Amino acid sequence: MNPQLTTDGRLRHLLTLDGLPRAILTQILDTAESFMDVGEREVKKVPLLRGKSIFNLFFEPSTRTRTTFEIAAKRLSADVVNLNIATSSQTKGEAILDTVDNLAAMHADMFIVRHSQSGAAHFIARNVAPHISVVNAGDGRHAHPTQGLLDMFTIRRYKGAFHNLTVAVVGDVLHSRVARSQIHALTTLGVPEVRVIGPKTLLPAGVEQMGVKVFHNMEQGLAGCDVVIMLRLQNERMRGALLPSAQEYFKFFGLTPEKLALAKPDAIVMHPGPMNRGVEIDSEVADGPQSVILPQVTYGIAVRMAVMAMLAGGSQ
Amino acid sequence: MTASLPDATSLIDALAAAIAPGFDPDTRIVGIHTGGVWVAERLHALLRSPHPIGQLDISFYRDDFSRIGLHPQVKPSNLPYDLEGRPLLLVDDVLHTGRTIRAAMNELFDYGRPALIQLAVLVDRGGRELPIRPDFAGLVLDVPAHQNINLSRLDDGHLTLSIA
């Protein structure tokens, strides 16, 4: 049984997009569409989560993800508490559960969890009381489901549908939880051709089994694409000599106007941020007319509102 | 049972005739999803309102959210004008407990402060749980609590009332 769903098929936690049915993904995107308008009104709030307490549990630093979760929760009228928890290498599961138990004793209704270890959000979800929901805001290399969803929302807004698209995910797929969530969502939503483009050292072994086409040559991989998703080069996670240098990487896999010209003329360029300008993406592309990188951030608020609203309701 | 209910289109025509004498042309007409929007569309045409029609989905304002959760098909609200200081005509198909109208008014105030809100409903079926009364009702009917009145729209746009 999928631990993310209730017995009657409703969303209970959001931990990964792997295994979530298309109907749920579509419902999240549709609900987010309704929330878009709230950000443009006189009063940018709806009363859905009034009286609920949401804890942002960030065991790994993040500015934008935490902030957009916070704004989303506040627009739903929830009370939000931000906890940035410094973790030492000795931190064990017990310590996490102590934290969670303490917060549950303060009548928490939802935990938004980011952790450097894969599976941390699942671990917490397995150990919380039945009325508490858990949202994974990024765990290790595993998943970042709300980022994947906001990317799908962005694609649907600009392209209208998924069934006729060619989408490329470019760069450091190996270390990227974002890429995994994107690939699961793209295939579930029916994108017929999902490509991953990157050097052999930055693509996980067996990535083809996720239903993608693999390219090691960026020019070939970009040809005819409707959507180009650039990934952050995870410098801070690099161990050993996976790459010769950032300059060398930019030469082969950095998105320049010349390389982008090989995709369709109306192709959009996305990036989950924060960008390394001049490493995986040229500033001219990042700030250019095909870039939808800033709209992605705005859409992230509506998508996170949708997820939290779907999780918080119907508890009785 | 359907046969015992009057024709919905004639009811809307009568409703429009009742609203028309005092109708301020500055009024914005706002329909509540889904049936209220259908009624509002016809009223909008009959009253010759020069302003676009507003649509309200009150899902985010319902008072039973924590019990039953979010409606699986929430539609975006769309109020294509500033309602600050304007008169509004709020339109719904069936008025029952009054909870939908309370939610709709709460939502409207998050867009601004209207000068005036009047309520027009196709059917007032009784059973109020809040102090809310319609300014205009096409039909007043005492319906037992276990029965429901529904407005449906056929493919050709024809509106039909049914009771079940």
A few lines on this structure:
The complex is a heterodimer of chains A (316) and B (164). With 316 residues, chain A is of the alpha/beta class.
**What is the H level of CATH, i.e. the homologous superfamily of the largest domain in chain A?**
Aspartate/ornithine carbamoyltransferase
Spell the H/E element sequence of chain B: HEHEHEHEEEE
CATH class of chain B: Alpha Beta
CATH architecture of the largest domain in chain A: 3-Layer(aba) Sandwich
Spatial order of the strands in the main sheet of chain A? Answer: 7-6-5-8-9
**Total domain modules of chain B:** 1
Structural class of chain B: alpha/beta
Helix content of chain A: 25-40%
Low-confidence stretches of chain B: none
User: CATH top level of the largest domain in chain A?
Assistant: Alpha Beta
- Order of strands across the widest beta sheet of chain B? 2-1-3-4-5
In CATH terms, what is the architecture of chain B?
Answer: 3-Layer(aba) Sandwich
- Largest sheet: number of strands, sense, barrel closure of chain B: 5 strands, parallel
- Counting copies of identical and different chains, the oligomeric state is heterodimer
Distance between the termini of chain A: 21 Å
Q: How many angstroms does the end-to-end distance of chain B come to? A: 8 Å
